Amino acid sequence: MKFSVLMSVYSKERAEFLASSLESILEQTLIPNEIVLVKDGPLTESLDDLLNDFSRKYPHLFKIVNLPQNVGLGKALSKGLEVTTNDLVARMDSDDICYPNRFLEQVTFMESHEDISVLGSTIQEFDSMPGDLSSFRYLPENHNELIKLIKYRNPLNHPTVFFRKSHVLEVGGYKDMQLFEDYYLWVRLIVAGYKIHNLSQPLLHFRTGNNMIGRRSGTHYVVKEIRFLKILRKMGVISYSEFLLSLATKVPFRLLPKSVIQFFYKKFAR
């Protein structure tokens, strides 16, 4: 079965990380027939050179979408999705590394489960190189469990997902919802009656990086999270009491010192 890979890259990414990510796609046991990569605004010379090299080597695979300015992940993925030619689309971040069997496992599952619209998996986190951390991020597998979870947290590891483009477009695709682009999409799919699922086995090496906690804490994150919680309340996904509970538990936690958040994340979040 043919499928596409959808990626986005912007100027602050590192070329060596992107190279490792792309190489892990090309070394899959099942290769996509197209890789759509969105350049979210002008890139550094090293990133441009890298993409030019890959495009020259694999002209039949790569489709590069050039955006004149940085528009953010949601809009960038929306533009890229317009270019994909297959209904099955795999997401991939520009600094993560696929397990060699990732696409084969996910395509096989999607072919035999036509009722599933989005499929994720467990991820194994790493810092400098795959395997240097023995930490995995597990999520419930079946749809009914994920419906319960979505009230409180993102039910899918976004860089691992495989989805049906037609279903995603029917609910409006990716929206400009900074830091919550994927979460918002899963909510709309579930509200529309579509099903999601997670595979228990890890299929992606997820790069944590030194600033992962910084991106998920502080007042900038709190403001966006409160906005998103209000949307969940308006959509009827959470009740008023659940909205207040989320505010009471999440907001103070986001404002803790990063070292404290790091401790709790390592101890309890996996």
Automatic annotation (TrEMBL):
The record ties this protein, via PANTHER family, to: GLYCOSYLTRANSFERASE, GLYCOSYLTRANSFERASE EPSE-RELATED
Enzyme kind, highest EC tier: transferase
This protein's name = Uncharacterized glycosyltransferase HI_1695
Q: Which InterPro entries match?
A: Glyco_trans_2-like, Glycosyltransf_2, Nucleotide-diphossugar_trans
Locate the Glycosyltransferase 2-like domain: which residues? 4-136
Pfam families in alphabetical order: Glycos_transf_2
What keywords are annotated for this sequence in UniProt?
Answer: Glycosyltransferase, Transferase
Decide whether keyword Flavoprotein is in the record.
no
Signal peptide interval: none
In the record, the note on similarity to other proteins reads:
Belongs to the glycosyltransferase 2 family.
- Species assigned in the record: Sphingobacterium multivorum
Q: What is its EC number?
A: 2.4.-.-
* GO MF terms held by the record: glycosyltransferase activity
